C-alpha cells in the first residue's frame, strides 16, 4: 500500500469515527453500596456506555450511612433529587440504574418506626417510574443488597436494619416494577450467592465483592438496547 492509499484510508477512518453516534449515557442513583461498586462498573462499561452517577455536588460525608452527596438515600430523597435533576436541560441519560431501600428500612431501636413506611415506599417508587417515563428515560431496578441482623445491629446502634425488611421492601419493588415491565437486576440474590465473610462492617463489602457486583450489573447493562 502506497502513501496516498494509506492517507486515504486514514481519512476515511477518521470521518467514519467522527460520524458515529456518541456512546449511550447511563446514570446511576443508589446508596453507598452503589458508590463502592461504581468505579468498577464505570471501568467495565468503558467503550459501551458513558457512565455518570449522583455526585458529591459540594457535599460530602465521612459516615457512609449518612445520605448526602453521592449517596441517594431513601426513596423519598431519590424522588426529590430526580424532580430537581430533571429540570436541568443537560440531564439526558439514555438509561438509569436505580436502587433505594437500605435507608428506607432503617428502624428506630426505641419506637421501631421505619424511616420510610412500606406504603410510602411503594408510592415513591411508582412516582419515580412515572417521572422518568414521562421524561423519556428508561430504567432498570437493582434489588437491595442483604442484611445480616446480628452483624448489623451489634455494630450499628443509632438505627437497626433487618433481613426480613429487606425481603419485604424488595418484594414491593418487584411488584411495582414488574407490573411496569421494568428490568430488574437481582443484586440481592447474586450477593447472597457469594457466601459468607463478604462484609467489612455492618453492611458494606470488600473490594473483591464490589468488583463482582459491578461485573454482574455490567453483564446486564452491556447487553441491553439503551433506547427507551
Write the layout of secondary structure elements.
Elements: H1 3-19, E1 25-29, H2 32-44, E2 50-53, H3 75-85, E3 95-98, H4 118-134, E4 138-142, H5 149-155, H6 163-178, E5 184-185, H7 187-192, H8 207-221
Parallel strand pairs: 1-2, 1-3, 3-4, 4-5
Helix pairs in contact: 2-8, 3-4, 4-6
Summarize the structure.
With 228 residues, the chain is of the alpha/beta class. It has helices at residues 3-19, 32-44, 75-85, 118-134, 149-155, 163-178, 187-192, 207-221, and strands spanning 25-29, 50-53, 95-98, 138-142, 184-185.
Q: Which ranges are low-confidence, i.e. pLDDT below 50, for 5 or more consecutive residues?
A: 5-19, 58-63
Distance between the termini: 45 Å
Q: What is the overall number of helices? A: 8
Across the major sheet, the strand order is 2-1-3-4-5
Q: What general outline do the C-alpha atoms trace?
A: globular
**Roughly what fraction of the amino acids lie in strands?**
5-15%
Helix content: 40-55%
- What is the radius of gyration computed over CA atoms, rounded to a whole number of angstroms? 20 Å
Helix/strand/pairing class, anyone?
alpha/beta
Tell me how many strands there are.
5
